[in-house]
Amino acid sequence: MIAVVRSARRRGALAVAVFAVVLLGLVTAGAAAGAVPAPRDAFRQAQASAPAGSAAAGALSRAAARDLWINSREADAPPYGRNVFTASKQAVGDPGLSATATGLIITADRALAADALAQAHGGGAAMLASARSVLSAADRQARAGNLSAAIDLYAKAWQLADGAIARRVAGEVTHVPSATLAAAAEHALAVTRFGMSGPRIVQGLTPLTSGGKPEVFYAGSEACPFCGVQRWGMIVALSQFGTFSNLHLMQSVPTTPPQVTTFTFFGSSYHSPYVSFVPVEVWSNVPANPGLVPLQTLTHPEAVLVHRFDPPVETPFIDIGNRFITDSATVTPRLITHRSWTQLAGGLTDPSNVSTQAIAGEAEVMTAEVCEATGGNPASVCASTVVQQYEAALPTLTGKGGSCPAPPGPGGPPPASDAPASDAAASDAAASDAPASDAAASAPQQSARVDPVATAAHCGV
Amino acid sequence: MGRFAVVLVASLFVMVPAAQAAQRSDGSVPAPAQVSSLVTSVPASTLNQVGAGDSRNPVTNHYFGIVKGDGHFTSDGKPQIVSAELAWCPHCAANSWALAVALSRFGTFSRLGEINTGTYFCKTAEDPCNLNPLYCFPYTHGLSFMGSGYRSPYVSFAAVELQDVNGHNLQKLNRHERRSLAAVHLQGVTPAISIGGAWGFAGSGYDPGTLAHMTWSQIAGSLANPHNRIARQVDGLANLFTAAICRVTKGRPGSVCSSRGVQAAADAVLRKYPNRPPPPP
Fold it and tell me: Are B135 and A446 in contact (CB < 8 Å)?
């Protein structure tokens, strides 16, 4: 009984202290931006003050894990970013944690939800109202000292706000003004530094169709930055032929820069009277040991298709009606990195914006390909001047875009013939089903360690 | 019961340090006698039936290379075979089986080790854009020559494990070994094998993915079956290594070097080696 009373007193005292810290944080944030640590930094500070080896220290280490953050203020999109709240809830459950550290955690969780709400401005009104209501309820729980309940509610508010952001961003990316798109795309086509990579143009194959319509098939990975940049252009392009629903926000893995904010096609749907869209996200962006947690599986015909045209199975892989094959991003992901979803989507009304030009260039390459596959339908899209320009330019887009078909390295042992190594690699890739990373087998020991930054630099413009 | 508990605890104390001591510095452990026996006594009839098998042809394959050198490197008066390996490298693990099968035809191994390459290569070759879940061949099971012994009247063998399974530097090539690899233009390459500086092999002789999910016992146990998928790659590669070794032993022993399987591998590869100068280092 005494223990219960003591526990209740402790909880009351802690609640007062914590909420004072929360309020102090909010007031300070209002008075002098930057005085309050960014959420991820707050978790690190709290971790530093937690007893070494304690449950709280371990949980805070997980909350601040690099994989869960886009930057120090923004957590990954759900479902992965949700782990920040799960870990922070575990941390506040440790009785050995100081009131200051607990206050930092609650402040950080609240800031995540509040920042997401601020970003979601203009998203679904009902969702936003619900998020605000849940945030208020979370504050009440924090005041009452029910910290676990408060964190659960902050997580819920954050998730609702994220849904509103997704709705806002998806609304913007699927309704880019045609004049803006045309102007930005014309710029991208004219400026060689974009180094756009065109498709492989295939002739004489049985058209790829489904539902009686030309099929756009995509195989990718949530973790892959090249898929990440490509999805922006794909959504803009395909939105001209049909309607997406349930697009969710996603980001590529931070361990392979450049990290990009993007969408996932997993769980989305698409309807069009002109084309069928079949996306497969093979890998999630959740690290496993080794590799990534799998998400979707290619059917046998899909796997055959990918291996036929892309033996190293590098993504994004896009087949438009068996007429246009793409196994790399049209532009380098570097052109959209360091920008949030709202920044990228918001920029789509400004044709002078570099990221908008990159996305528009990608979009019009794909629009031109789809128009070829649909026989020019609908004319409202396919007859536009810029699409015609892009259709004519498809065979000339020989830039390297955003591709990294094989790890860097010398490309293998000295060939027995006098053929240059690169030619040998190309012919081997066409003739063999050996995985691309096999080339690293015979890399010098120094080069076998692939520096992700060097890889990105190698792949970028 | 009490006595049983004491015995159990005592044996735990005895077993744990013994297991720790068994681990070699590259991360390998001694191979069980059964595995060693199966690898070192693949029937000649199997090897003859497999011939070049399904191993990669280094004349045409980009991932496996062959180089003809002009060296005559020896040790103890015998042609020396130098193998540069990394314990974490799945491609080295793939080659190790064939090298053990081949060398067992010229001499006798003792204290062979088993190595699990783990995931270090996956970390170094991380590619979140690749669809192949096994692109980095995690946990490939191979043989380790580190700490093993080899005796042969025909050749000497130096296996140099440059790094352990976690990528830490381990052994270094001595000057003689470096020169032997240089003679076949394989400095800084792994896996690399120099057959007396006269012939060199770089890269893996077959896809390491062949060994995915296979235990050491399963791999070793498959080598005697000429129709087995693994045997056709490992034994085929072993015949190629054997054919190259026979070139430096001047066809000795005749029972091995004139065998049908070795001749088939020589026909498929060595006799088709382009008669051109070797590429620059």
Answer: no
Q: Does residue A290 have a cis bond before it (omega within 30 degrees)?
A: yes
| Nearest residue in A to B59, CA atom | A416
Does residue A173 contact residue A262 with C-beta atoms inside 8 Å?
no
Residues of B within 8 A of A448 (CB-CB) are 86, 89, 121, 124-125, 190
A125-143 vs A147-173: helix crossing angle, rounded to 10: 160
Q: Which residues pair with A201 in a beta bridge?
A: A324
- How far apart CA A27 and CA A35 sit, in angstroms, is 10
This model's pTM is above 0.90: no
Q: Is the pLDDT of residue A347 over 90?
A: yes
Query: Positive or negative CA dihedral for A78, A80, A81, A85?
Result: positive
Q: What is the pLDDT of residues A307-323, one digit of tens each?
A: 999 988 989 999 999 99
Interchain contact B186–A (C-beta under 8 A) = yes
Nearest residue of B to residue A293, measured between CA atoms: B133
Give me the pLDDT at residue A336, please: 95
Query: What local confidence, expressed as pLDDT, does residue A406 receive?
Result: 35
Chain B positions touching A436 (Cβ under 8 A) are: 127, 130, 135
Nearest-by-CA chain B residue for A438:
B63
CB A253 to CB B128 under 8 A? yes
Question: How crowded is residue B266: how many other Cβ atoms within 10 Å of its Cβ?
Answer: 21
Mean pLDDT of A260-288: 95
A196, A361 contact by CB (below 8 A): yes
Cβ of B128 within 8 Å of Cβ of A223? The answer is yes
Interface test with A, best of B54, B57, B62, B213 (most A CBs within 10 A): B62
Please judge whether A226 and B129 are an interchain contact, meaning their C-beta atoms are less than 8 angstroms apart. yes
- Residue A68 and residue A33 in contact, taking contact as beta carbons nearer than 8 Å: no
> Taking CB atoms and an 8 Å limit, are A417 and B274 in contact across chains?
yes
Assess whether pLDDT exceeds 60 at residue B252.
Answer: yes
Residue-wise pLDDT for A418-441, tens only, equals 222 222 222 322 223 233 333 333
Interhelix angle A82-92/A39-49, nearest 10 degrees: 30
Q: How confident is the model at residue A15 (pLDDT cuts 50, 70, 90)?
A: low
Band (A330; pLDDT cuts 50, 70, 90): very high
Answer whether A60's CB lies under 8 Å from A68's CB.
Answer: no
pLDDT at position B200: 96
Nearest Cα neighbor of A71 from A119, A24, A27, A29 is: A119
Region B171-200: what's the mean pLDDT?
A: 95
Measured between alpha carbons, how far is residue A106 from residues A37, A77, A118, A272, B222 in Å? 12, 19, 18, 46, 59
Q: Does B166 touch chain A (CB under 8 A)?
A: no
Distances (CA, A) of A245 to A166, A221, A239, A300: 11, 19, 10, 27
Domain boundaries, chain A: 2-170, 174-396
What is the rounded average pLDDT for all residues in chain B?
89
| Local confidence band at A2 (pLDDT 50, 70, 90 cut-offs) | very low
